[in-house]
Amino acid sequence: EPEVTQTPSHQVTQMGQEVILRCVPISNHLYFYWYRQILGQKVEFLVSFYNNEISEKSEIFDDQFSVERPDGSNFTLKIRSTKLEDSAMYFCASTSGNYTDTQYFGPGTRLTVL
Amino acid sequence: AQSVTQPDIHITVSEGASLELRCNYSYGATPYLFWYVQSPGQGLQLLLKYFSGDTLVQGIKGFEAEFKRSQSSFNLRKPSVHWSDAAEYFCAVGALPMNRDDKIIFGKGTRLHILP
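^ inputs. structure came back:
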């Protein structure tokens, strides 16, 4: 069964450094998302992406964040200058956009900012 | 405003006992409802989903959920829990069709503890 994959599974970085989290959505999917989950809290929407542009972003997704689909398979989330409070689990998701298709989530990348 | 409420932060049940996890939602459009399970340090696994039809939906691992429109509820149930069911459970709501800017909104989760 096709699945969303994410790399790395765990990323440790120093405050102020740039990080890129990578996702490979399911191959025929057209809509892509990033969510994050701070430890012990609920999963929160960050951004949705379709047709090579952002469809919607939350207030969390400020100028430090960006997303890109650099080729036909990868979907990346970049945090330009990480802060301590960016430490969280980041989930990528994708969907085909068919009427009843759900969003399929990847296993997540745990980002730790020191 | 769109929201999902899971009133129980923690629930403890004995192995073999029945389980019900509560979920209420507030959503302006036709809701597309989900339950996800997350084991410690793991990703989100979809247990079941509902968007129309029979209001009692069956999912994986022996779970089921009942949609009650009048109560805006989508409670998760299992007749007999196993120790391996110990995890965090998230109720979530989205829109149909699931596309473009239709994000999924999650509840805060209920952590399930199982007593031997």
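The CA atoms of residues 19 and 102 of chain B lie 31 Å apart. The mean pLDDT of chain B is 91.
thumbs up if we can close this ticket
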